[in-house]
Amino acid sequence: MKLLGKQQLHDFKEKHADARSHIESWEAEVESMEWKTPHELKSMFPSADTPGNQQAIFNICGNRYRLWVQVEYKQRIVLVRKIGTHKEYSKWKIV
Q1: Which of 11, 63, 71, 78 is deepest in the core (most CB within 10 A)?
Q2: How far is residue 40 CA from its own chain's centroid?
Q3: 59 phi and psi angles, rounded to 5 deg
Q4: Which Pfam families does UniProt cross-reference here (predicted)?
Q5: What range does the domain containing 83 cover?
Q6: Domain tally for the chain?
Q7: What is the pLDDT of residue 11?
Q8: If we measure between CA atoms, which residue out of 60, 53, 52, 54 comes closest to residue 89?
Q9: Domain holding 35: CATH number?
Q10: pLDDT per position in the chain (95 positions), as tens?
Q11: DSSP letters along the chain, please?
């Protein structure tokens, strides 16, 4: 998959050093994948939420942080929408 929005991830890693290795591992795994459906995504990341509209929410650092992405399966693109603490996540409007 092509991963867009890496700058948000980079900025987040600078602020939250404890998340660095988790995010870098997630990035590498996503870029090596070619999901065609949400089911394939869930098979790789069983704890991810897929609320619909080609979106996915990933737990980072044991659910301390949340990562919201838009997945364009046909184009093989993952777009980072937001990354934040679990508290910040509770205020996001996932549509």
Answers
A1: 78
A2: 15
A3: -85, 135
A4: HigB_toxin
A5: 2-89
A6: 1
A7: 97
A8: 60
A9: 3.30.2310.20
A10: 999 999 999 999 999 999 999 999 999 999 999 999 999 999 999 999 999 889 999 999 988 999 999 999 999 999 999 999 988 988 888 76
A11: -EEE-HHHHHHHHHH-GGGHHHHHHHHHHHHH----SHHHHHHH-TT-EEEETTEEEEEETTTTEEEEEEEETTTTEEEEEEEEEHHHHTT----
Tokens representing 36 are: 């065609």
pLDDT at 90: 84
Look up residue 23 and give its DSSP letter: H
In a domain, 95, yes or no: no
